[in-house]
Design brief:
With 108 residues, the chain is mainly α. The protein has 5 helices and no strands. α1 crosses α2. It is elongated and about 55 Å long.
Length: 108
Amino acid sequence: MLPIMAIAFLTLISYVVMQLWNNILPEVMNVQSINIWQAAGIFVLCKILFGFGRMGGFGRDKMMFKQRLAERVKDMSPEELAQFEKGFEGQRFKRFNMCRPEEQKESQ
C-alpha cells in the first residue's frame, strides 16, 4: 500500500509543479512549458538540494544558526548585547532570549 501512496503523492505533486510552471513561468521568464515527467524531475531535484522535511535542509540550518548565535552572544557585554538586539527590532525574532547566556538573562 505504501508504494502506491508514494506514487500517487509524487504524481499529485508533479502535476501541481507542472501547472504552476506552465501557468506562471512562460509569461514571466519566457521559458518553455514542461510535461509531468519534467515536473517530477524538478520536484525530486529540489528535494535533493533543499532537504526532505525535518530531517535535512532548513531544520538543520536552524540548529546551526542557534549555536552560532549563542557563541556570538556569550562574550558580549550588556551594552553590546543591547545594540545587537536593537538591530532586530520589528523583526520576528522572539526567541532571541533563548540564546543568551544565563547571567545576561538574569540581568534584564
